[in-house]
Design goal:
It is a single chain. The protein is α/β, with parallel strands linked by helices. Helices cover about 50% and strands about 10% of the residues. The protein has helices at about 20-30, 50-55, 60-65, 70-75, 100-110, 130, 150-175, 185-205, 215-225, 230-255; strands at about 10-15, 40, 65-70, 80-85, 95, 115-120, 135-140. A 7-stranded parallel beta sheet has the order 3-2-1-6-4-7-5. Strand 1, helix 1 (about 20-30) and strand 2 form a beta-alpha-beta unit. Helix 5 (about 100-110) crosses helix 7 and helix 8 (about 185-205) packs parallel to helix 10. The termini are far apart. About 35% of the residues are buried. It catalyses: uridine(32) in tRNA + S-adenosyl-L-methionine = 2'-O-methyluridine(32) in tRNA + S-adenosyl-L-homocysteine + H(+); cytidine(32) in tRNA + S-adenosyl-L-methionine = 2'-O-methylcytidine(32) in tRNA + S-adenosyl-L-homocysteine + H(+). Its EC number is 2.1.1.200.
Length: about 260
Amino acid sequence: MSQFPAATRLRFVLVGTQHPGNMGAAARALKTMGLARMVLVAPEKPLDEEAFRRSAGAEDVLGDAPVMATLAEAVADCTLVLGCTARARRVQLEEYLPSDAAARAVAKAGEGAEVALVFGRERTGLTNEELQLCHAAVHIPSDPSFSSLNLAAAVQVLAYETRMQLLGAQPAAEAEPADVREPVASHEQMESFFAQLGDTLDEIDFHKGRAPESAMRKLRRLFLRGEPTEQEVRLLRGILADTQRMARLARENGKEG
């Protein structure tokens, strides 16, 4: 059990890891910083002797790490998902330095929310589709002439920054919150909303023959930036449901006419 309550709501998610040893080294990086939650998403190879050897005392963190089939499944209950990536990506996301990302993650976890820090494959990182599931990106400003950073080293950087934020936030965490906000909608709830939003825009022919991807990317950023609550998402989905119903009635009346 971590000495920091907020740390129990912070998870480090490794996606598509190619070398088992890196999963062990990442577990060690977390434990040295007092963190214990690691999630593995579709690793290329299962944990093996090398993975546990490289965990070097963090066998509990490694052994307790659940294995998920997809990133969406791994972060379904999160209200903040930060993806570690290089800058050159087609997906436009708000970008944080590690210290700023850790500050936001710890602050959100301190409010009682589940938070995920996501790391991609050793060679190729996170795909654009996976980055689309993130609220913001984290960029480690390594030397551009030699920017390749080992997966476990990247985890160590974010784990260190997270610990520094936890140490700084410890006194404040003991105080009673002045204003308790309604729960922010989870990642799974937001993805369901986005799916319904996409269907609704199609039904009302919003795109008018244009590719819908650009509009949906902008709408995703807009709603994720606003951090709607569960109640607000229910309200939005109710509006969409009525819009879909009216669109169906209009089509049916058109056929009758």
